[in-house]
UniProtKB/TrEMBL annotation:
Primary localization: membrane
Every Prepilin type IV endopeptidase peptidase domain range: 17-143
Subcellular location: Cell membrane
Coiled coil: none
GO molecular function, one term: aspartic-type endopeptidase activity
Chain positions covered by the region annotation Disordered: 222-241, 271-299
Protein name: Peptidase A24
Pfam (any one): Peptidase_A24
Topology of this chain in the membrane: Multi-pass membrane protein
Source lineage: Archaea, Methanobacteriati, Methanobacteriota, Stenosarchaea group, Halobacteria
Domain (Preflagellin peptidase C-terminal): residue spans on this chain: 321-361
Chain ranges passing through the membrane: 39-58, 70-89, 101-117, 129-153, 344-366
Keyword tags: Cell membrane, Membrane, Transmembrane, Transmembrane helix
GO cellular component: plasma membrane
Length: 367
């Protein structure tokens, strides 16, 4: 908030700590699609303190500063931006981290700051209402809308013309285990919605398999008779979760590997079990095991229904049919189209930086 005759109050200077924090969470969201809730607590506490500080400064300045520079922008920020963030999260438009980020910004940036940089005063533009968190939100939406255009231009420049070129691009199947996003293919062709790759990782970890296992022995693992008697923890599908090659328990995070007491024995066990998996392909593609009828072995291809019934939650809304179709595609193709699903925290960070430097993209464009 800028009081008459001043530029960059102490609260406004302290608010700049949000820039490196949001840069960090944006990078983490790209790499892992996971942001801990604890990152927002310090920013929320800082925002509450600075809000009270701003209110005290405005109250001691004059009635105009109190009503027009503080009260109205703060009311819009807390009474409009906060409900929008909550409603978008409730209806599935935002992830939990996205909603929390906007809630924090509504508390941290209710009013327009101003910073003197040489002969410049930033932001370069302002809005009639002066609610800075709303400016950040509209900037983020505009950046988010521009992302599909950039993706389409990138695909067109590379000669990749497809019905889904606006929302995704092709990747090697070998990259799928470390890729976030959603598969844009089914056995029938390209699709604008398909298997969530986090759900795929959950399924593979539950069975104690790798995608390479599925590709090398798809006839065997398509048979639900090969499901494990004691499935492994599926984790939450994060790329950073490591799984033992022998199908043992999942280890959350690479650092947890150091907690295995006897790593050599674990590796040896993994090698031994892997050799047991490398059975003759012809034998694996033969009839179901003794005692299993044809109807029993084909009622639930890939064990998709058994997996979803066994785990807690819904695996990001994945249906058995989506899981089966995704496995069929990934087991057969060398390259597939995926949608990376740009994390909204990236446009939010871009919207914050643009707001601090330029101001409101929407107002600047219209006026």
């Amino acid at each position: 908030m800028t009081l008459a005759g001043s530029v960059a109050t102490t609260p406004d200077l302290l608010r700049l700590v949000a820039v490196p924090v949001f840069a960090w969470v944006a990078i983490r969201d790209i790499k892992t699609r996971r942001v801990s809730s604890t990152v927002w607590i310090p920013l929320a506490l800082l925002g509450a303190v600075l809000l009270v500080w701003d209110g005290w400064l405005a109250w001691n300045a004059d009635s105009y500063a109190w009503s027009h520079e503080f009260l109205i922008p703060t009311a819009v920020s807390l009474g409009f931006v906060v409900p929008i963030a909550y409603l978008f999260w409730w209806f599935g438009g935002f992830g939990g981290a996205d909603a929390k980020a906007l809630l924090v910004l509504a508390l941290l940036f209710p009013t327009f700051p101003q910073y003197a940089v040489g002969s410049w005063t930033l932001p370069l533009t302002s809005t009639p209402i002066g609610t800075f968190s709303f400016t950040i939100l509209t900037n983020a939406v505009i950046v988010g809308i521009a992302v599909p255009v950039v993706i389409a231009l990138r695909n067109a420049a590379a000669g990749r013309v497809s019905s889904v070129m606006v929302i995704g691009w092709p990747v090697s199947t070998d990259r799928i285990p470390v890729t976030h996003g959603r598969l844009l293919e089914t056995p029938e062709g390209r699709s604008r919605g398909g298997l969530d790759l986090d759900a795929l990782r959950m399924y593979l970890r539950w069975r104690g398999l790798t995608l390479a296992d599925v590709r090398n022995h798809r006839d065997r693992y398509r048979d639900p008779a090969t499901l494990p008697d004691e499935p492994n923890p599926p984790t939450d599908g994060a790329v950073t979760a490591a799984v033992r090659s022998d199908g043992g328990r999942a280890l959350e995070g690479a650092d947890d590997l150091d907690e295995v007491e006897d790593a050599d024995d674990a590796d040896a066990l993994g090698d031994a079990t892997e050799s047991e998996r490398n059975l003759d392909t012809d034998a694996e593609s033969s009839a179901a095991p003794a005692g299993a009828t044809d109807s029993e072995s084909t009622a639930d291809p890939w064990g998709a229904e058994a997996f979803l019934a066994d785990i807690e939650g819904t695996a990001y809304g994945t249906t058995p049919e989506e899981l089966r179709e995704g496995l069929e595609v990934l087991a057969a193709k060398e390259t597939v189209w995926i949608s990376p699903g740009t994390p909204f925290l990236v446009p939010v960070f871009a919207g914050l930086v643009i707001a601090l430097v330029y101001g409101d993209l929407l107002i600047g464009t219209l006026f």
